[in-house]
Write a structure and sequence with these properties.
Blueprint lengths: L23 E5 L2 E7 L6 E8 L4 E4 L6 H14 L5 E5 L5 H4 L2 H8 L3 E3 L1 H12 L7 H9 L4 H10 L2 H5 L8 E2 L5 E4 L2 E8 L6 E6 L4 E5 L6 E2 L13 H12 L7 E4 L8 H22 L6 H4 L10 H20 L3 E5 L5 E5 L3 H5 L14 E2 L5
Parallel strand pairs: 4-5, 5-6, 6-7, 11-13
Antiparallel strand pairs: 1-2, 2-3, 3-4, 8-9, 9-10, 10-11, 12-16, 14-15
Helix pairs in contact: 8-9, 9-11
Amino acid sequence: MSEANPGRQALDYPWGARQEPGTVVTIQPGVLWVRMALPMTLDHINLYALEDAAGWWIFDTGLRLDATREIWERVAAEHFGGKPVVGMICSHCHPDHVGMAGWISERWQAPLWMTHGEYYMGLAFSHGGGDGPLWEAIEFYRRAGAATGFLERFRQRTRGFAGLVEPLPRAFHRVRDGEVFTIGGSRWEVVVGRGHSPEHLCLLSRERALLLSGDQVIPLITPNVSVLAIEPEGNPLADFLDSMRRFLDLPDEVLVLPAHNTPFRGLHRRLRQLIAHHEDHLAALEEACLQPSTALELLPALFKRTLDTEQIGLALGECIAHLHLLLARGRIERLVDADGLYRYRTLDPAVAERAGSVPHVRDDDPVMAIDGEPI
């Protein structure tokens, strides 16, 4: 549009430096990085703003919090040069990414742009645990081996999503893989990844050598890839690994702007690390299934530390995602025991000979698993 291409050079910035909530960093002219706080173990999210002739586009919105609203008001007053917000692009449906979309839409009359699957999954989550039955979700975790106490605590937590997000805008603009936004005179290509969420939207600018990666590619932690009770027979890890391989076709020299941790270079190296990380977990689980085991019994094969109720739910989702991919590959079978629990058993007798000969990495954090040294 009106601004000329500002070039590919990113600001010479110490990317490893910790950012406080409300910090704004200029990545390139017309590209802002905004750090917001999250009240959880993963205590921050990176949001971005892109300048166009008529105003600013916001990429992801933050969690529904008074502090988030106050920071966006301050960022607009101090950094937007009197221009309004003209649009929002939300990468996916998780609360820390869409939580303020309804408020931003109302505050600036700014439309929401999302993929079809993410918008409607967000609507489904926002209504989850309301007046509808919970029996299917309870059965999902019971079959995985969860105890009665966990199931009761799960019942009490199911209404949490609605409190973390403003009501989503009633209308949205559908975005498809391969489409292009022209913002600030630059082309931003839509690259859709899957696995962490149904149709996760990333934005690639080849001329700026920037990739807004959301949660799809993060430098120090692995995106949570889980089977959810809302889709109990899903195979999200197959989708995630397929996405990582497709992303290897993207330019390696881009500066990756992720939703968590800090911007980094070395996209292809990180993608290969993520693929290897999950393949290692698949091998560890296959070895752990020499005796028929429930998903709950298999968690120590993946996670080292003691898990609380919330972490157990996330860890079970991760574990089941790996088990479903092993099922799809024909490496294990799923049995139903006398109590109606799912038990998984290795099919290849050679796995017994391999077990224990190669150490496997177990994760510290099932929400976003720690995965080695910074790039």
